[in-house]
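Sequence design from tokenized structure. All designs in this work follow the same two-part layout: the structure record, then the generated sequence. An example of the structure record is given first.
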């Protein structure tokens, strides 16, 4: 019986999704409210996401405006942003907090594209590890007598086709992100 690839395809999809969410954290010089998703604010002793305690809007391509629902949390939100690895200094006018993202320099863009390419390679390694895991399972089934030589070859081909599909997918995502970084 040929190897069932659905489990391995699900793992590969998960690897691509993890790669895409890692890319979302790479700041491309544009204001993206998603950058604040990883920042927790100490709100009455409980770690709380900024978007759960304030309205977060993008006012223009380079500015995020945070309007807290409870004015007393303004300083805590500001402190949490400063403590994060965002590298942006919040501007507080007493009513709202503004985050202004500077224009990226050519050098910084090149660094970011290298970072994107490295993350892409890491994602490809994850896909290849899943391929190896699937191939090891087919070989074990062949050795145990649960699979014939022809079924082993068919399984290996199916796994390789899946691997090629998801590596191509990662290459497309990488190219799209690098293009976005270089155009800004």
């Amino acid at each position: 019986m040929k190897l069932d690839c659905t489990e391995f395809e699900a793992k590969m999809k998960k690897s691509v999704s993890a790669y895409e969410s890692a890319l979302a954290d790479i700041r491309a010089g544009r204001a993206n409210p998603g950058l604040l998703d990883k920042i927790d604010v100490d709100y009455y002793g409980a770690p709380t996401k900024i978007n759960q305690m304030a309205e977060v809007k993008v006012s223009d391509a380079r500015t995020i405006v945070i309007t807290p629902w409870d004015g007393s949390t303004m300083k805590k939100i500001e402190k949490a942003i400063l403590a994060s690895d965002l590298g942006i200094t919040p501007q507080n006018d007493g009513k709202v907090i503004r985050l202004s993202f500077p224009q990226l320099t050519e050098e910084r863009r090149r660094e970011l594209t290298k970072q994107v390419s490295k993350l892409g390679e890491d994602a490809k390694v994850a896909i290849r590890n899943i391929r190896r895991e699937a191939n090891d399972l087919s070989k074990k089934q062949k050795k145990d007598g649960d699979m014939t030589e022809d079924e082993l070859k068919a399984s290996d081909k199916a796994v390789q086709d899946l691997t090629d599909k998801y590596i191509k997918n990662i290459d497309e995502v990488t190219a799209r992100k690098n293009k976005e970084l270089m155009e800004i």
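The mean pLDDT is 85. We note this feature because it recurs in several other targets discussed in the main text.
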